[in-house]
Fold this sequence. Notes:
The complex is a heterodimer. Chain A is an alpha+beta fold. In chain A, about 50% of the residues lie in helices and about 5% in strands. Chain A has nine helices and four strands, in the order E-H-E-H-E-E-H-H-H-H-H-H-H. Chain A has helices at about 35-45, 65-70, 90-100, 110-125, 130-140, 145-170, 180-195, 205-215, 220-225; strands at about 25-30, 50-55, 75-80, 85. A four-stranded mixed sheet of chain B has the order 2-1-3-4, covered by helices on one side. By secondary structure, chain B is an alpha+beta fold. Chain B is about 55% helix and about 5% strand. Chain B is globular, with a radius of gyration of 17 Å. Chain B is built from ten helices and four strands. Classes of the chains: A alpha+beta, B alpha+beta.
Amino acid sequence: xxxxxxxxxxxxxxxxxxxxxxxxxxxxxxxxxxxxxxxxxxxxxxxxxxxxxxxxxxxxxxxxxxxxxxxxxxxxxxxxxxxxxxxxxxxxxxxxxxxxxxxxxxxxxxxxxxxxxxxxxxxxxxxxxxxxxxxxxxxxxxxxxxxxxxxxxxxxxxxxxxxxxxxxxxxxxxxxxxxxxxxxxxxxxxxxxxxxxxxxxxxxxxxxxxxxxxxxxxxxxxxxxxxxxxxxx
Amino acid sequence: xxxxxxxxxxxxxxxxxxxxxxxxxxxxxxxxxxxxxxxxxxxxxxxxxxxxxxxxxxxxxxxxxxxxxxxxxxxxxxxxxxxxxxxxxxxxxxxxxxxxxxxxxxxxxxxxxxxxxxxxxxxxxxxxxxxxxxxxxxxxxxxxxxxxxxxxxxxxxxxxxxxxxxxxxxxxxxxxxxxxxxxxxxxxxxxxxxxxxxxxxxxxxxxxxxxxxxxxxx
Lengths: 233, 218
């Protein structure tokens, strides 16, 4: 099959099931941006996995059954190679270090640092502040009318800073001409911002350009919240 | 001739504190450039600093002509480019566990209790007294989760018996916890590991009270 990510000559291939390992299991919620990141990565690494829904909306993550799997009571959780992994960024790094398929980090240390900075700006800088738990706290303690402006504030602040950075370093992808985990984190964050929090990205032309290009790539499409087993009809 | 790395830092910024610890563990000598996050609304917002780092944050590390931002990427960069004690283990599962703990702190706790967020909360509510409550709440919540994880993965240190990036993230977070009067007796594993780490020279030398920009009497 033809590579769709800039012709770097990577031949996609399927990771064959090892004798000692069963099919990886991903605990995920369709619209969770952290789950979305990992789904995209699994697609690029050509890893077939079992999808287990954790319905965050009904609080399934707080039930004892799921707590046994992840005491942090969060998605995503990836069970792979006999291990249970949590926290999306560390999962992405694990996949990068252990799986074949398209590299998602460049070779040069300073470029890797740049990819990780963009990743960090999203994973630490934006997403935690628009987390449901934080929104609920704001609503309960300061008033429901503050929850939405709160999340929009942090998304806009994060995007405006990212726009400056990306304007300097992005070409076809967030960092130059190579797809990376930065792109895998950008798309879910932008989707989330637009779909759930009514944030427009027209003030962020580089982010908009990258988002529109990346979301056409099959691995991103397959991972999209609209295309998951638990996507509401 | 290679010049020393330059670290832009604020004495009390926990993200800067992490990088200082890592530089010390690796025995890297560096130039300290203070960025006062409080003065005149915050030096990190000046045009000069924004040009250096559009994220308007510390730490920033300048190394061999590269400008590096965000503490975890900086530390991963140091890990990849320098000899000296390793902050990530060899095997991928342990590495994932170290990064998991680091992420719980660096993405799950610190961002919600950092300076700019607290300023926003004060602005939202019009109340200064909401600060200790907010900081205490999010660190307490985060530590409840972290304690459970550490019970299963810790040894002498956060992950087994080797010092790692997880420990580098832990100490600055406990420093903040104490500022917000979090009851550390609730978190015996975090407390034990923190006490051990605080006695190590790289951690001592990195502590806020040892920095050139620490105000006198703090």
